[in-house]
Each structure stands twice: as structure tokens, then as C-alpha cells.
Write a structure and sequence with these properties.
This protein has 726 residues and is of the alpha/beta class. The protein has 24 helices and 15 strands. The chain has 3 domains: 127 residues, 2-Layer Sandwich (Chitobiase, domain 2); 335 residues, Glycosidases (TIM Barrel, Alpha-Beta Barrel); 156 residues, Alpha-Beta Complex (Alpha-d-glucuronidase, C-terminal Domain). α5 runs parallel beside α7, α14 packs antiparallel against α17 and α17 crosses α18. The radius of gyration is 26 Å and the shape is globular. The structure holds beta-D-glucopyranuronic acid.
Length: 726
């Protein structure tokens, strides 16, 4: 039994454990359906509880404001759960163990001690243990109320993870200005690429009914420091900008405001036509510009702290400035001009490509690189982590480092569109970390993507990071318990992109499950290995985009996949060197040289950049064919091991979450096997080579895999659902 469970059950008569049915009420209070996320505040083990009770004997919460009231209530709620009873509130720190929170404005003590330094900035905080007038105190201080709230969550994290509270000295401030969740939610509550039920925004009942979940959502975001949310899909609906829907959005914004969470909307580029009655949406047309100015004014009338617009233009059927012979810069700058008087920003997406002869991996760079220096200071160009589209592994996007006069924002996917949806356990921390630490060499070594997007490399006017949310109306929010870790990791890395994915995983495991080392260590190991496992069983050695049109399951044989694998009787891989698409030339010379050279390219990206014969020798001395078989098989094996590790943890975690994770791992194992077998079946039909000794052949013949079909896959666009079953 884990320590949390032990503590919860301590003191209950034994017969009660035997006759659970008699203890129905108590059990209901213990329900572990995942709703509480990482904010569970379950009782600490007795010794720790005693130590922390001595450290915090009274709360001195100076000042009142909606945000400070939330901080004070959160602290009381958290300590009540963790310590068994909330320390009383006191007016002044007149005893040992007072916990003081506030700003220099609200707390004379914080003002007198100058505890909120400039380094904490507008959103940061200081947590310090100190002695004052003979008393031992802990202080959570900030320059602004929101910093106090962030500091409160950070302090509760320390208590939850059982850190000693005697000698605290933390100063923490976000390195990135805009830390944003992008929801791909439609007004009919479907969620594009959503695998956690329907949208949490119940538009039909807004603004009259404010589901308590909206508050819980804002609270969870604030606990990580996420400060913006784009409510609706980038494949935008102009109706979102009508007065009816703006009033609904305003109601959500009012709920989110005290949590420091600003609302943004996607802007459909031809809204002036669709809902404005104009005949054009040409960004240089004065009537169009006036329409946007007035629309933006209307929005700010309802939502004074509105964040701005996110725009997907001239991509995958969305209208955009190019429809009128104008550039992306013309479009983005027009919106920036409308937003400027109100302090809003434009996040303009670089995810553009068209069907055509040009390598898709090079199209975003080709379109946007020439616009460097031409975008308004209020515009951030939002670039996906890799040049294609959220694959299990891609090299970093070549636009990072290539636009020194533009504020670039990183977009990562939290939802697992290409990573097995909700049932595959894939912790994305290592993927985010790999991107953030990639070195663009734009200004010599050390020019990491993290430094591009935090604005430090090029002194960019704005900085931002966006995560495509995995949140829906499922009780557990994210479709699975382990997918909560991806929301968590996004938020923590958005606050500090230099954090290590492993540390974040450990923190999350401790908060979400237990501090029991016999649980934490194996689960963190499993999480850390999970992303590489998915790469191996789906697309090893730099392969990409090998899935069915719905993005559920393997289909390397369809045209869209063959475009990316370039496999034939001779070999496999996409030649992106000078003899091929030359996409490699979009990287800075030291990077380009490394990727272009067969001897230097990381094996993990081999087939992304190179087409090689099936008998090409890898560093191991094995042929690429044998290596593929080994990697696919290793991925499946890894999932089998994850299942075993989890099975061995029975009893260390509550039955409810244990059972769901177990069932999902079983699905993942089956599907990993499906990926391996279908992929090897197809590639073997081309390579005509035998599997290396000891490796089992696919369970079924290729025709079997090709005939599988799943017409009601969640999260797809209607028109992309794929063929019906024969
Ligand atoms: C792709 C998705 C598609 C999104 C698009 C985007 O398949 O549903 O609309 O990205 O991000 O990954 O715009």
C-alpha cells in the first residue's frame, strides 16, 4: 500500500476495510477518477505532517483582491488536505511558523524587507524562510497578485512532494511571456484531434450557466503558470466572432481573469465576408481594415483583457491573404494594427503547405523566411516543433534560428494525434525537451530553440509557446491519467524551458500518485522510455507520417505515406540532401553539414534526410533493413516491459487508476504489435529480405492489415474520416 493510501486509511477500524460496503461514504470521498489532476492534496504521512505543521502554524494573507482571495483559499485547501487541518489565519506574523503571502503593496512586512525583487518580474515570486522579529517565517512574495498565486501553487508543490520547509530560498519567474493552450474545439463541441470526450466549453449553455469545470480548468492552468487560452479551433468558424458568441466568450474570460488566464480567439480570415457582409477580406482594403478595427473594439468592450488572435491562413483550406494576392505579412499586420491600441497580439501560424512537387518539409520556411523583418512587433510567428506535423520524431523546424527579426513562438502538440491517441502511454516531456535543446547554431553554438523562443537569442520583442491541448470533458480531463503528465510538462516547460523532462516527470508522479520511492522510480523510468518506444514501434530511424488517413494505426502503403517513406525495391528514406529536395540547406551550415552527411547524421534521423539502399550498413554493422526490424520489435518489447512494470505496482496505487492504466497498456501493446507487423509486412514486400534470426514474422499477411478500417475514429475532420469498411 502506498503511503498516501496508508495515511488515508489509518485509524479506520479493520472491520471497516473488510466491509467496504458499510463505508460507502468514505470510499466515495476517496474516488480517484483523475479529476483532481496533480492538485490532489491527499494527507501526508504522519511524520512529514507533523514536521510541516510545525513549519506552518498560521497563514498571514495580506490584502484582498479576487486573485489574492484565490491564493489564500488554495493555501487553506491544500494545507487542510495535506496536513489534516488548515492552519488558522492571523492578522500579523507574531508567532513562529507564520506563512506570509502578499505583495509589497499589500504586506508591510514584504515591503519593509524588500522581498519581491525585480528579478521576479510581473508574474514571478519569491519563497523564503527567514527570521523576523525573533520569529521563524515563510514568505511567499511577489510584485503582483498573480505572482502570489503562482507562488502559492509552487509552495504547495513543495509540501506535496515532501520537501523540507526550513530553508527555502527560491526566486522564480517565467522565461517566456505568452504560455498558451490552443484548443482545437468547435462550436458544436467536437474537438479536432481530441481524444478526451467532447469540448469542455458548453457554448449552448453559456453565458447563463458557468460549469464549475471552467474554474477548475483555470485553477489547473494557473497551477502551472499557463496564462493564455485560445478557446476555439484554428480551422476557424467566423461565428465565434459574432455578438452571440462573444458574450459567451466574455463569460469564460470573467471566470479565468483572476487566475491570470487571458482569452484568445482564432480569427477566420474571411470573417468580414462571412459575418460582416463585405465582398472581400483583402487585408489592404480600407473597408476590411475598418471592419476588423471595429470588431476588435467590440471584443475589447466585452473583454477588456482580451489576448488577441490566433490565425491559420492559407493552409489546409483556410482562407487567407493570399486569396487576394497579398502576403502573410499583409494579413498579420492588418490584424496587429487593429489590436495594437488595446494591447492584443497576433499569433500567425507558419503551418502552411500545399500539394505539389515541393517537399512539404521545406514549404513553411520557403513561405516565411522572406518575411523576416516584415511582421509587426505585435505579431508572433507560431512554428510547430518540426517541419512536417507533430510526428513522433522530427528534427527541429528550420525556421527556428532563421528569422532573427521576428518573434517566433513554438507550437507543440499535447494531444497525441500521431502518438496513439489517449490509450498509448507516451510521455512527451522528452520530445519537448529535445526540441527546446536543439541547437540551431544561428549565432554559433548554444543557439538553442529555447533561446530563440524565450526571446534571448535575438532580443525579440515578444516571446511565446503554445501547446495544442488534450483537454476534454472526460472526468480525467485528458483521456487518460498519464496524458495529464503532458499538460503538466507543457506548463512547467513553458514557465522554464530549461527544466529537465525527467525532473518534471518525477514531480508529476509524486503529485499525481505517491511519494513512495518504490513507486516513483519505476514509473519515472517507464515514462522516460515511453516516447522512444513509440518512435520505435511507429516510425523508427527517421521515418514519418506512416499512419492511416484518420491517423489511427499504420498505413505505410497509402500514397500519403509512400510520399514520406520513398520505399521501393532498392531502398527507403527521403533524400533531403542536395541530390534530393535539399531541405537540409534550410538549416545553418554546421547543422546542415551534419544532417547531410551520412556519416554524421544522427541515426534517429537517418531516413528523414537520406534515401539508403536496404543493405546500407549502420554503425552497428547491421543493414538498415535488419535495424528497422530490430527497432520495430524493440518498441513492442518496451511496451511489454511497461506493462510488467505497472503490473508490479499493484497495491501501490488506488485500484481505480491502476485498472485504467493497466487496460490502456494492454491496448497499447496490441497496437504496438499491429504497427510493427503491418509496417514490416509492407516494407518486406518491397525489400524482399528475410527477418533477422530470432525475430517473429508479422502475425498476419499484408492484405489483412491493408483491409483493416475504422470508420468512426475520434477527433478527425468529417471530410478526412477515410474510407468506410468494405
Ligand atoms: C494537423 C492536423 C489537423 C490540424 C492541423 C493544424 O491533422 O487536424 O488542423 O495540423 O495544426 O496536424 O492546423
Amino acid at each position: 500500500m502506498n503511503s498516501d493510501a496508508a495515511a488515508t486509511r489509518a485509524g479506520r477500524p479493520l472491520w471497516c476495510l473488510a466491509l467496504l460496503v458499510l463505508c460507502g461514504a468514505g470510499q466515495a470521498a476517496l474516488a480517484e477518477d483523475g479529476y483532481d489532476l496533480w492538485l490532489r492534496y491527499r494527507p501526508l504521512p504522519p511524520a512529514q505532517r507533523e514536521a510541516d505543521r510545525r513549519a506552518v502554524r498560521a497563514i498571514v494573507a495580506a490584502g484582498r483582491s479576487p486573485t489574492l482571495d484565490i491564493a489564500r483559499a488554495e493555501l487553506a485547501r491544500g494545507l487542510d488536505g495535506l496536513l489534516g487541518t488548515a492552519p488558522p489565519f492571523a492578522a500579523a506574523p507574531t508567532r513562529d511558523g507564520s506563512l506570509v503571502l502578499g505583495t509589497a503593496l499589500t504586506s508591510p512586512l514584504i515591503a519593509a524587507l524588500r522581498l519581491a525583487p525585480g528579478a521576479a518580474g510581473r508574474e514571478g515570486y519569491v519563497i523564503r524562510s527567514l527570521r523576523y522579529a525573533g520569529h521563524r517565517l515563510i514568505v511567499i512574495a511577489a510584485n503582483e497578485d498573480i505572482g502570489v498565486l503562482y507562488g502559492t501553487f509552487a509552495f504547495l508543490r513543495l509540501v506535496q512532494t515532501q520537501r523540507p520547509l526550513g530553508n527555502l530560498a527560491m526566486v522564480s519567474a517565467p522565461r517566456i511571456q505568452h504560455r498558451i493552450l490552443d484548443h482545437f474545439d468547435n462550436l458544436d463541441r467536437t474537438v479536432e484531434r481530441g481524444y478526451a470526450g467532447e469540448s469542455i466549453w458548453d457554448w449552448q449553455k453559456l453565458p447563463g450557466y458557468l460549469d464549475p469545470r471552467y474554474t477548475d480548468y483555470a485553477r489547473a492552468c494557473a497551477s502551472l503558470g499557463i496564462n493564455g487560452t485560445v478557446l476555439n479551433n484554428v480551422n476557424a468558424d467566423a461565428d465565434s466572432l459574432t455578438p452571440l458568441y462573444l458574450r459567451k466568450t466574455a463569460a469564460l474570460a470573467a471566470v479565468f481573469r483572476p487566475y491570470g488566464l487571458r482569452v484568445f480567439l482564432t480569427a477566420r480570415f474571411d470573417a468580414p465576408i462571412e459575418i460582416g457582409g463585405l465582398h472581400t477580406a483583402d487585408p489592404l482594403d480600407p473597408a476590411v481594415r475598418a471592419w476588423w478595427r471595429s470588431k476588435v473594439g467590440e471584443i475589447y468592450g466585452l473583454i477588456p483583457d482580451f489576448g488577441g488572435f490566433l490565425v491559420k491562413a492559407n493552409s489546409e483550406g483556410q482562407p487567407g491573404p493570399e486569396n487576394y494576392g497579398r502576403s502573410h505579412a499583409d494579413g498579420a499586420n492588418m490584424l496587429a494594427e487593429a489590436l495594437a491600441p488595446h494591447g492584443g497580439i497576433v499569433m500567425w501560424r507558419a503551418f502552411v503547405y500545399s500539394q505539389g512537387p515541393t517537399d512539404r518539409a521545406r514549404q513553411a520556411y520557403d513561405s516565411f523566411k522572406p518575411l523576416d523583418g516584415k511582421l509587426d512587433r505585435k505579431v508572433l510567428l507560431q512554428v510547430k516543433n518540426g517541419p512536417i506535423d507533430f510526428q513522433p520524431r522530427e528534427p527541429f523546424h528550420p525556421l527556428f534560428g532563421a528569422m532573427p527579426r521576428t518573434s517566433l513562438m513554438l507550437e507543440v502538440q499535447i494531444t497525441k494525434e500521431y502518438l496513439g491517441f489517449a490509450t498509448h502511454l507516451v510521455y512527451l516531456g522528452p520530445l519537448f525537451e529535445e526540441t527546446l535543446r536543439s541547437d540551431t547554431f544561428a549565432r554559433g553554438p548554444g543557439s538553442t530553440v529555447a533561446r530563440v523562443i524565450d526571446g534571448s537569442l535575438f532580443a525579440s520583442p515578444k516571446s511565446g509557446i503554445a501547446g495544442d491541448a488534450n483537454i476534454g470533458s472526460d472526468r480525467n480531463w485528458c483521456g487518460s491519467i498519464f496524458d495529464q503528465a503532458n499538460w503538466y510538462a507543457f506548463g512547467r516547460l513553458a514557465w522554464d524551458p530549461n527544466l529537465a523532462a525527467r525532473d518534471v516527470a518525477e514531480e508529476w508522479v509524486r503529485l499525481t500518485f505517491s511519494n513512495d520511492p518504490a513507486f516513483v522510480a519505476p514509473v519515472v523510468r517507464m515514462m522516460m522510455a515511453s516516447r522512444e518506444a513509440a518512435v520505435d514501434y511507429m516510425t523508427p530511424l527517421g521515418l514519418a507520417h506512416q499512419m492511416a488517413p484518420s491517423h489511427y494505426g499504420p498505413a505505410p502503403w497509402i500514397e500519403a505515406s509512400r510520399y514520406f517513406n520513398h520505399a521501393d525495391a532498392q531502398g527507403i528514406g527521403f533524400d533531403r540532401t542536395a541530390t534530393g529536395s535539399d531541405a537540409v540547406a534550410q538549416y545553418a551550415p554546421p547543422v546542415a553539414t551534419r544532417f547531410a552527411d551520412l556519416k554524421q547524421v544522427p541515426e534517429a534521423l537517418l531516413l528523414w534526410f537520406h534515401h539508403v539502399p536496404w543493405d546500407y550498413r549502420m554503425a552497428s554493422g547491421r543493414t538498415v533493413w535488419d535495424e528497422l526490424v530490430i527497432r520495430y520489435s524493440r518498441g513492442v518489447q518496451q511496451v511489454t516491459e511497461m506493462r510488467q512494470v505497472w503490473a508490479g505496482l499493484a497495491g501501490r496505487v488506488d485500484a481505480e487508476r491502476f485498472a485504467q492504466v493497466s487496460a490502456f497498456l494492454a491496448i497499447q501493446e496490441q497496437e504496438a504489435r499491429w504497427w510493427r507487423d503491418a509496417s514490416l509486412g509492407y516494407f518486406q514486400s518491397l525489400s524482399r529480405r528475410a527477418l533477422p534470426a530470432g525475430y517473429s514474422p508479422p502475425q498476419h499477411d499484408l492484405a489483412y492489415y491493408e483491409a483493416l478500417c475504422f470508420p468512426y475514429v475520434p477527433g478527425v475532420w468529417g471530410e478526412r474520416r477515410g474510407p468506410l469498411c468494405r
